[in-house]
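help with this record:
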Amino acid sequence: MSIYARLCPFISPPQTNQRISRVTLTLKTPTISFPPKLTNLVTITAIHGKPRWENLLYTAKPRTLPIFRAVNGNSEHSPVAPAKPSWENFLATAASLYPLYVIVGWFVACVKPSTFAWFVSRGPASYSLTLGLIMLAMGLTLEFKDMIRLFLQRPLSILFGCVAQYTIMPASAFAISKILGLSPSLSVGLILLGCCPGGTASNVVTLIARGDVPLSIIVTACTTLGAVLVTPFLTKILAGTLVPVDAIQLSISTLQVVVAPILLGAYIQSAFPAVVKIVTPFSPLFAVLASSLLACSVFSENIVLLNSMVGASLKSDLSPLRQAQAILSGDLWVVMLAVALLHYVGFFVGYISAAICGFKEPQRRSISIEVGMQNSSLGVVLATSHFSSPMVAVPPAVSAVIMNVMGSSLGFLWRQKNPSDSESSPKIDDN
Protein backbone atom coordinates (compact mmCIF):
# COMPACT_ATOMS: atom_id res chain seq x y z
CA MET A 1 0.00 0.00 0.00
CA SER A 2 1.40 3.36 -0.99
CA ILE A 3 2.62 5.63 1.78
CA TYR A 4 0.66 8.43 0.08
CA ALA A 5 -2.59 6.50 0.29
CA ARG A 6 -2.31 5.42 3.89
CA LEU A 7 -0.46 8.02 5.90
CA CYS A 8 -2.01 11.35 4.98
CA PRO A 9 -5.66 12.29 5.35
CA PHE A 10 -5.20 15.35 3.18
CA ILE A 11 -3.41 13.94 0.16
CA SER A 12 -4.93 11.81 -2.54
CA PRO A 13 -3.04 8.81 -3.94
CA PRO A 14 -0.93 9.76 -6.96
CA GLN A 15 -2.31 8.68 -10.30
CA THR A 16 -0.36 6.05 -12.22
CA ASN A 17 1.82 7.79 -14.77
CA GLN A 18 2.67 5.07 -17.25
CA ARG A 19 3.27 5.24 -20.94
CA ILE A 20 0.39 3.47 -22.56
CA SER A 21 -0.66 2.60 -26.05
CA ARG A 22 -4.06 3.06 -27.58
CA VAL A 23 -5.22 0.01 -29.49
CA THR A 24 -8.23 0.40 -31.75
CA LEU A 25 -9.77 -2.94 -32.64
CA THR A 26 -12.05 -3.90 -35.47
CA LEU A 27 -14.69 -6.03 -33.71
CA LYS A 28 -17.66 -7.91 -35.10
CA THR A 29 -19.02 -8.96 -31.71
CA PRO A 30 -19.67 -7.03 -28.50
CA THR A 31 -16.87 -8.93 -26.75
CA ILE A 32 -13.74 -6.78 -26.14
CA SER A 33 -10.48 -8.69 -26.14
CA PHE A 34 -6.87 -8.19 -27.15
CA PRO A 35 -5.81 -10.08 -30.29
CA PRO A 36 -2.79 -12.33 -29.96
CA LYS A 37 -1.04 -10.40 -32.70
CA LEU A 38 -1.23 -6.78 -33.69
CA THR A 39 -2.52 -7.54 -37.21
CA ASN A 40 -6.00 -6.06 -36.98
CA LEU A 41 -4.96 -2.49 -36.35
CA VAL A 42 -6.42 0.34 -38.32
CA THR A 43 -3.87 2.06 -40.52
CA ILE A 44 -1.31 3.81 -38.33
CA THR A 45 1.62 5.89 -39.46
CA ALA A 46 5.03 4.53 -38.43
CA ILE A 47 8.03 6.72 -37.69
CA HIS A 48 11.63 5.96 -38.72
CA GLY A 49 10.91 2.37 -39.54
CA LYS A 50 9.66 1.38 -36.09
CA PRO A 51 6.63 -0.90 -35.79
CA ARG A 52 3.43 1.07 -35.89
CA TRP A 53 2.27 0.08 -32.44
CA GLU A 54 5.55 1.32 -30.90
CA ASN A 55 4.88 4.84 -32.16
CA LEU A 56 1.57 5.18 -30.31
CA LEU A 57 3.09 5.70 -26.86
CA TYR A 58 1.74 8.59 -24.85
CA THR A 59 0.38 9.47 -21.44
CA ALA A 60 -3.34 10.05 -20.90
CA LYS A 61 -6.02 9.89 -18.26
CA PRO A 62 -7.64 6.46 -18.00
CA ARG A 63 -11.18 7.73 -18.50
CA THR A 64 -10.39 9.22 -21.95
CA LEU A 65 -9.31 6.00 -23.60
CA PRO A 66 -11.47 3.03 -24.54
CA ILE A 67 -8.78 0.34 -24.30
CA PHE A 68 -5.34 0.43 -22.66
CA ARG A 69 -2.25 -1.65 -22.62
CA ALA A 70 0.62 -0.68 -20.33
CA VAL A 71 4.00 -0.53 -22.00
CA ASN A 72 6.75 -1.53 -19.60
CA GLY A 73 9.36 -2.87 -21.95
CA ASN A 74 8.25 -6.50 -21.66
CA SER A 75 4.81 -5.84 -23.20
CA GLU A 76 3.12 -7.39 -20.18
CA HIS A 77 -0.51 -6.45 -19.51
CA SER A 78 -1.01 -4.44 -16.30
CA PRO A 79 -4.07 -2.66 -14.93
CA VAL A 80 -4.43 1.11 -15.10
CA ALA A 81 -5.42 2.87 -11.87
CA PRO A 82 -9.11 3.84 -12.07
CA ALA A 83 -10.01 7.50 -11.92
CA LYS A 84 -11.51 8.76 -8.67
CA PRO A 85 -15.23 9.52 -8.64
CA SER A 86 -16.13 13.16 -9.10
CA TRP A 87 -17.59 13.41 -5.59
CA GLU A 88 -14.26 12.34 -4.07
CA ASN A 89 -12.51 15.04 -6.09
CA PHE A 90 -15.05 17.54 -4.79
CA LEU A 91 -14.39 16.52 -1.17
CA ALA A 92 -10.62 16.74 -1.69
CA THR A 93 -10.97 20.20 -3.22
CA ALA A 94 -13.20 21.36 -0.37
CA ALA A 95 -10.67 20.09 2.18
CA SER A 96 -7.85 22.01 0.47
CA LEU A 97 -9.62 25.30 1.28
CA TYR A 98 -8.65 25.05 4.95
CA PRO A 99 -6.93 28.47 5.07
CA LEU A 100 -10.07 30.10 3.66
CA TYR A 101 -12.29 28.52 6.34
CA VAL A 102 -9.99 29.72 9.11
CA ILE A 103 -9.75 33.27 7.73
CA VAL A 104 -13.54 33.59 7.39
CA GLY A 105 -14.10 32.13 10.86
CA TRP A 106 -11.48 34.41 12.36
CA PHE A 107 -13.16 37.47 10.83
CA VAL A 108 -16.55 36.35 12.15
CA ALA A 109 -15.00 35.87 15.61
CA CYS A 110 -13.69 39.45 15.51
CA VAL A 111 -16.96 40.98 14.31
CA LYS A 112 -19.46 38.84 16.22
CA PRO A 113 -17.86 36.62 18.88
CA SER A 114 -21.23 35.30 20.04
CA THR A 115 -21.46 33.24 16.84
CA PHE A 116 -19.34 30.55 18.48
CA ALA A 117 -20.95 30.78 21.93
CA TRP A 118 -22.74 27.43 21.51
CA PHE A 119 -19.36 25.67 21.19
CA VAL A 120 -17.42 27.80 23.68
CA SER A 121 -19.99 27.26 26.43
CA ARG A 122 -19.28 23.52 26.35
CA GLY A 123 -15.51 23.92 26.60
CA PRO A 124 -12.97 22.68 27.42
CA ALA A 125 -14.68 19.28 27.02
CA SER A 126 -15.89 20.25 23.54
CA TYR A 127 -12.32 21.24 22.58
CA SER A 128 -10.83 17.94 23.74
CA LEU A 129 -13.54 15.88 22.05
CA THR A 130 -13.11 17.76 18.76
CA LEU A 131 -9.34 17.31 18.73
CA GLY A 132 -9.76 13.62 19.59
CA LEU A 133 -12.05 13.17 16.57
CA ILE A 134 -9.54 14.97 14.34
CA MET A 135 -6.76 12.64 15.50
CA LEU A 136 -9.05 9.64 15.02
CA ALA A 137 -9.59 10.71 11.41
CA MET A 138 -5.82 10.87 11.01
CA GLY A 139 -5.39 7.43 12.55
CA LEU A 140 -7.83 5.92 10.06
CA THR A 141 -5.33 6.67 7.30
CA LEU A 142 -2.26 5.26 9.09
CA GLU A 143 -0.68 1.91 8.41
CA PHE A 144 2.21 1.39 10.78
CA LYS A 145 4.02 -1.19 8.68
CA ASP A 146 4.34 1.43 5.94
CA MET A 147 5.65 3.94 8.48
CA ILE A 148 8.25 1.50 9.79
CA ARG A 149 9.37 0.54 6.29
CA LEU A 150 9.77 4.18 5.27
CA PHE A 151 11.62 5.00 8.48
CA LEU A 152 14.10 2.19 7.81
CA GLN A 153 14.61 3.43 4.27
CA ARG A 154 15.10 7.10 5.14
CA PRO A 155 16.29 7.43 8.73
CA LEU A 156 18.51 10.51 8.28
CA SER A 157 15.96 12.91 6.85
CA ILE A 158 13.21 11.71 9.22
CA LEU A 159 15.35 12.06 12.34
CA PHE A 160 16.58 15.46 11.19
CA GLY A 161 13.01 16.66 10.64
CA CYS A 162 11.90 15.49 14.09
CA VAL A 163 14.87 17.03 15.88
CA ALA A 164 14.47 20.31 13.98
CA GLN A 165 10.78 20.43 14.90
CA TYR A 166 11.43 20.15 18.63
CA THR A 167 14.48 22.44 18.80
CA ILE A 168 13.98 25.34 16.37
CA MET A 169 10.37 26.22 17.28
CA PRO A 170 10.57 25.97 21.11
CA ALA A 171 13.80 27.99 21.24
CA SER A 172 12.41 30.58 18.82
CA ALA A 173 9.18 30.94 20.80
CA PHE A 174 11.10 31.53 24.02
CA ALA A 175 13.38 34.12 22.40
CA ILE A 176 10.53 36.00 20.67
CA SER A 177 8.48 36.21 23.87
CA LYS A 178 11.48 37.79 25.63
CA ILE A 179 12.31 40.20 22.80
CA LEU A 180 8.73 41.48 22.47
CA GLY A 181 8.18 41.60 26.22
CA LEU A 182 4.96 39.58 26.18
CA SER A 183 2.98 39.11 29.37
CA PRO A 184 3.54 35.81 31.23
CA SER A 185 0.27 34.31 29.98
CA LEU A 186 0.92 35.18 26.34
CA SER A 187 4.55 34.05 26.66
CA VAL A 188 3.43 30.66 27.93
CA GLY A 189 0.91 30.41 25.09
CA LEU A 190 3.59 31.19 22.49
CA ILE A 191 6.04 28.71 24.05
CA LEU A 192 3.33 26.04 24.21
CA LEU A 193 2.61 26.63 20.53
CA GLY A 194 6.30 26.27 19.71
CA CYS A 195 6.51 22.99 21.63
CA CYS A 196 3.58 21.41 19.74
CA PRO A 197 4.21 18.82 16.99
CA GLY A 198 3.77 19.45 13.29
CA GLY A 199 0.26 19.90 11.94
CA THR A 200 -1.37 17.78 9.25
CA ALA A 201 -1.93 20.89 7.11
CA SER A 202 1.82 20.82 6.46
CA ASN A 203 1.33 17.75 4.29
CA VAL A 204 -0.98 19.65 1.95
CA VAL A 205 1.38 22.62 1.77
CA THR A 206 4.31 20.28 1.02
CA LEU A 207 2.35 18.79 -1.87
CA ILE A 208 1.63 22.27 -3.23
CA ALA A 209 5.30 23.27 -2.85
CA ARG A 210 6.58 20.21 -4.75
CA GLY A 211 8.36 19.00 -1.65
CA ASP A 212 9.04 15.49 -0.36
CA VAL A 213 5.51 14.48 0.67
CA PRO A 214 6.34 11.05 2.20
CA LEU A 215 8.97 12.73 4.37
CA SER A 216 6.43 15.33 5.53
CA ILE A 217 3.87 12.65 6.35
CA ILE A 218 6.20 10.46 8.39
CA VAL A 219 7.70 13.42 10.31
CA THR A 220 4.19 14.65 11.17
CA ALA A 221 3.25 11.19 12.43
CA CYS A 222 6.45 10.73 14.45
CA THR A 223 6.36 14.17 16.10
CA THR A 224 2.66 13.74 16.90
CA LEU A 225 3.24 10.41 18.61
CA GLY A 226 6.27 11.81 20.42
CA ALA A 227 4.32 14.83 21.66
CA VAL A 228 3.02 12.84 24.62
CA LEU A 229 6.47 13.18 26.23
CA VAL A 230 8.29 15.98 24.43
CA THR A 231 5.65 18.74 24.42
CA PRO A 232 4.89 18.73 28.18
CA PHE A 233 8.50 18.60 29.31
CA LEU A 234 9.75 21.25 26.87
CA THR A 235 6.92 23.49 28.05
CA LYS A 236 7.89 22.79 31.65
CA ILE A 237 11.54 23.69 31.01
CA LEU A 238 10.89 26.87 29.00
CA ALA A 239 7.73 28.21 30.64
CA GLY A 240 7.96 26.77 34.14
CA THR A 241 9.62 29.93 35.44
CA LEU A 242 6.68 32.07 34.27
CA VAL A 243 3.69 30.08 35.51
CA PRO A 244 3.26 26.68 37.18
CA VAL A 245 3.35 23.90 34.58
CA ASP A 246 2.20 20.38 35.43
CA ALA A 247 4.14 18.31 32.90
CA ILE A 248 2.57 15.02 34.03
CA GLN A 249 -0.99 16.25 33.48
CA LEU A 250 -0.02 17.77 30.14
CA SER A 251 1.44 14.42 29.14
CA ILE A 252 -1.71 12.55 30.18
CA SER A 253 -3.93 14.96 28.25
CA THR A 254 -1.75 14.63 25.14
CA LEU A 255 -1.98 10.85 25.44
CA GLN A 256 -5.77 11.02 25.71
CA VAL A 257 -6.57 13.48 22.94
CA VAL A 258 -3.77 12.70 20.46
CA VAL A 259 -2.03 9.35 20.80
CA ALA A 260 -4.99 7.20 21.93
CA PRO A 261 -7.30 8.34 19.07
CA ILE A 262 -4.53 7.82 16.51
CA LEU A 263 -3.86 4.28 17.76
CA LEU A 264 -7.59 3.56 17.84
CA GLY A 265 -7.96 4.81 14.28
CA ALA A 266 -5.04 2.68 13.11
CA TYR A 267 -6.62 -0.38 14.75
CA ILE A 268 -9.99 0.30 13.12
CA GLN A 269 -8.23 0.72 9.79
CA SER A 270 -6.67 -2.73 10.04
CA ALA A 271 -9.67 -4.48 11.59
CA PHE A 272 -12.47 -3.01 9.48
CA PRO A 273 -10.94 -1.99 6.14
CA ALA A 274 -14.26 -2.07 4.28
CA VAL A 275 -15.84 0.45 6.64
CA VAL A 276 -12.74 2.64 6.64
CA LYS A 277 -12.73 2.69 2.84
CA ILE A 278 -16.18 4.26 2.92
CA VAL A 279 -15.35 6.79 5.63
CA THR A 280 -11.86 7.84 4.49
CA PRO A 281 -12.91 10.20 1.65
CA PHE A 282 -14.87 12.29 4.17
CA SER A 283 -12.08 12.43 6.79
CA PRO A 284 -10.05 15.34 5.33
CA LEU A 285 -13.02 17.70 5.06
CA PHE A 286 -14.23 16.79 8.55
CA ALA A 287 -10.75 17.37 9.99
CA VAL A 288 -10.29 20.83 8.44
CA LEU A 289 -13.77 22.00 9.40
CA ALA A 290 -13.34 20.76 12.97
CA SER A 291 -9.90 22.41 13.22
CA SER A 292 -11.33 25.69 11.94
CA LEU A 293 -14.20 25.56 14.44
CA LEU A 294 -11.83 24.81 17.31
CA ALA A 295 -9.39 27.64 16.56
CA CYS A 296 -12.03 30.28 15.81
CA SER A 297 -14.08 29.39 18.90
CA VAL A 298 -11.13 29.88 21.23
CA PHE A 299 -10.24 33.12 19.49
CA SER A 300 -13.81 34.43 19.86
CA GLU A 301 -13.75 33.52 23.56
CA ASN A 302 -10.67 35.66 24.19
CA ILE A 303 -11.06 38.53 21.75
CA VAL A 304 -12.64 40.91 24.29
CA LEU A 305 -10.12 39.91 26.95
CA LEU A 306 -7.32 40.79 24.55
CA ASN A 307 -8.71 44.26 24.11
CA SER A 308 -9.15 44.76 27.86
CA MET A 309 -5.42 44.18 28.38
CA VAL A 310 -4.76 47.80 27.34
CA GLY A 311 -7.76 49.18 29.20
CA ALA A 312 -9.87 49.83 26.13
CA SER A 313 -13.57 49.24 26.35
CA LEU A 314 -15.99 48.33 23.61
CA LYS A 315 -19.12 50.40 23.43
CA SER A 316 -22.28 48.48 22.74
CA ASP A 317 -23.51 51.09 20.26
CA LEU A 318 -20.51 50.60 17.94
CA SER A 319 -21.05 48.79 14.66
CA PRO A 320 -19.44 45.35 14.27
CA LEU A 321 -16.75 46.75 11.96
CA ARG A 322 -15.94 49.52 14.46
CA GLN A 323 -15.69 46.93 17.22
CA ALA A 324 -13.27 44.87 15.13
CA GLN A 325 -11.19 47.99 14.45
CA ALA A 326 -11.07 48.85 18.16
CA ILE A 327 -9.99 45.32 19.03
CA LEU A 328 -7.22 45.26 16.46
CA SER A 329 -5.90 48.57 17.77
CA GLY A 330 -5.08 46.94 21.12
CA ASP A 331 -2.46 44.32 21.97
CA LEU A 332 -3.80 41.86 19.42
CA TRP A 333 -1.36 43.16 16.83
CA VAL A 334 1.53 42.33 19.19
CA VAL A 335 0.29 38.75 19.52
CA MET A 336 -0.11 38.53 15.73
CA LEU A 337 3.42 39.85 15.25
CA ALA A 338 4.84 37.34 17.73
CA VAL A 339 3.04 34.41 16.07
CA ALA A 340 4.03 35.56 12.57
CA LEU A 341 7.67 35.87 13.63
CA LEU A 342 7.60 32.41 15.17
CA HIS A 343 6.34 30.77 11.98
CA TYR A 344 8.66 32.84 9.77
CA VAL A 345 11.67 31.74 11.81
CA GLY A 346 10.48 28.14 11.60
CA PHE A 347 10.19 28.24 7.80
CA PHE A 348 13.49 30.10 7.31
CA VAL A 349 15.72 28.30 9.83
CA GLY A 350 14.21 24.93 8.91
CA TYR A 351 15.15 25.44 5.27
CA ILE A 352 18.61 26.87 5.97
CA SER A 353 19.51 24.09 8.41
CA ALA A 354 18.42 21.41 5.94
CA ALA A 355 20.48 23.10 3.21
CA ILE A 356 23.56 23.30 5.43
CA CYS A 357 23.23 19.59 6.22
CA GLY A 358 23.19 18.81 2.49
CA PHE A 359 19.65 17.63 1.87
CA LYS A 360 18.14 17.91 -1.58
CA GLU A 361 15.75 20.70 -2.49
CA PRO A 362 12.49 18.69 -2.10
CA GLN A 363 13.62 17.58 1.37
CA ARG A 364 14.60 21.13 2.31
CA ARG A 365 11.14 22.35 1.42
CA SER A 366 9.47 19.55 3.36
CA ILE A 367 11.57 20.16 6.48
CA SER A 368 11.00 23.92 6.26
CA ILE A 369 7.23 23.52 6.04
CA GLU A 370 7.14 20.79 8.67
CA VAL A 371 9.10 22.91 11.16
CA GLY A 372 7.17 26.11 10.45
CA MET A 373 3.62 24.68 10.71
CA GLN A 374 2.41 23.54 14.13
CA ASN A 375 -0.56 21.62 15.49
CA SER A 376 -2.25 24.72 16.85
CA SER A 377 -5.35 22.72 17.80
CA LEU A 378 -3.33 20.75 20.34
CA GLY A 379 -1.99 24.01 21.76
CA VAL A 380 -5.53 25.33 22.15
CA VAL A 381 -6.73 22.21 23.97
CA LEU A 382 -3.76 22.04 26.34
CA ALA A 383 -3.98 25.77 27.08
CA THR A 384 -7.71 25.73 27.92
CA SER A 385 -7.44 22.54 29.97
CA HIS A 386 -4.37 23.18 32.12
CA PHE A 387 -3.83 26.91 32.55
CA SER A 388 -5.98 29.24 34.63
CA SER A 389 -5.53 32.26 32.37
CA PRO A 390 -7.61 32.13 29.18
CA MET A 391 -5.00 34.30 27.47
CA VAL A 392 -2.65 31.30 27.19
CA ALA A 393 -4.87 29.93 24.41
CA VAL A 394 -4.73 33.11 22.31
CA PRO A 395 -1.36 32.54 20.51
CA PRO A 396 -2.36 29.03 19.34
CA ALA A 397 -5.76 30.35 18.21
CA VAL A 398 -4.20 33.25 16.29
CA SER A 399 -1.65 30.83 14.83
CA ALA A 400 -4.39 28.85 13.09
CA VAL A 401 -4.99 31.82 10.81
CA ILE A 402 -1.50 33.25 10.36
CA MET A 403 0.22 29.88 9.98
CA ASN A 404 -2.07 28.70 7.19
CA VAL A 405 -1.87 31.97 5.29
CA MET A 406 1.93 32.02 5.49
CA GLY A 407 2.29 28.31 4.73
CA SER A 408 -0.06 28.37 1.74
CA SER A 409 1.65 31.48 0.33
CA LEU A 410 5.06 29.83 0.67
CA GLY A 411 3.75 26.66 -0.95
CA PHE A 412 2.37 28.49 -3.99
CA LEU A 413 5.59 30.51 -4.27
CA TRP A 414 7.72 27.37 -4.30
CA ARG A 415 5.37 25.71 -6.75
CA GLN A 416 6.49 28.20 -9.40
CA LYS A 417 10.08 26.94 -9.13
CA ASN A 418 10.98 23.38 -10.03
CA PRO A 419 13.00 21.73 -7.22
CA SER A 420 15.48 20.33 -9.74
CA ASP A 421 16.43 23.88 -10.77
CA SER A 422 17.95 24.46 -7.32
CA GLU A 423 20.29 21.46 -7.40
CA SER A 424 23.87 22.63 -7.91
CA SER A 425 25.98 20.24 -5.83
CA PRO A 426 25.88 16.67 -4.48
CA LYS A 427 23.22 16.31 -1.77
CA ILE A 428 22.23 13.81 0.87
CA ASP A 429 19.67 11.33 -0.45
CA ASP A 430 18.81 8.57 1.97
CA ASN A 431 15.93 7.20 -0.10
Summary: Strands lie at 20-22, 57-58, 68-70. Residues 1-48, 50-79, 309-314 have pLDDT under 50 and may be disordered.
